[in-house]
Predict the 3D structure of the following.
Amino acid sequence: MAGIDENLAAEFEKIADPKELIGTIVRRFGDRAAIGTSGQLTGTVMIDLAVKAGVKPRVFTIDTLRLFPETYELFDEIEKKYGIKVERIQPDPAKIQKMVADNGEYLFFDSKEKQAFCCHLRKVEPNEKALDTVDVWMTGLRVDQSNSRAGTKKCEIILHGPAKRPVLKVAPLLDWSEKQLREYMAANGVPMHKLLNWNQDGWYYESLGCVICTTPIGPNEPRRAGRWRWFNSLEGDDKECGIHNNKTHKDEV
Ligand code: SF4
């Protein structure tokens, strides 16, 4: 679609209120705009804000086929509460079958390369499939989630697919803290992922992805230490799966 450019990014950047921003985007782009969520706090808050803005947003999730049962339960709850469909975008079954046949089910333990390969097939490719259908992608990225996300902009043009079609990636809750999100959810009855309320002796889930690859973190650990825990000693490991890696969008896709 024409009109995805820096002027649009600058126009949306000026809308400080996330409810107004999400409402404006959905009204203007309809089904060509979508919220991508993995069931974390920002995803459900964005959906709630959209509904409060008077729109029914299109919502998708990347279903790696290895998500926690509680994640699927949350999506069912969201669908029921808001009367919307959470589109579950899954990996190519033939590619997964081959990957497992060649490398085993648990290849991600072997090396960063094999973990990245698994994430590419189960997460990045389905995400690209979802992006094929949108002009505006609303994400739940926040600056306080990890060091590698500190430079994230609220509105950013990414170049998608072999044709390098511009897609506007918007993070409406970029500056919200976890405390703000939890307070908003409690005050507004927003469905919460059960594992995000789990706490045992100070250990808790900071973020949620696939089973095995996601573990709770201890009181003094970095926020993404629970992801691929067996790689924690690797220097410079940014703990990203590739979905939010701009290099991926610009150079590989
Ligand atoms: Fe594969 Fe683990 Fe990445 Fe999920 S998080 S796609 S199981 S490597």
Summary: The radius of gyration is 18 Å. Residues 6-191 form a domain with the Rossmann fold fold (CATH 3.40.50.620).
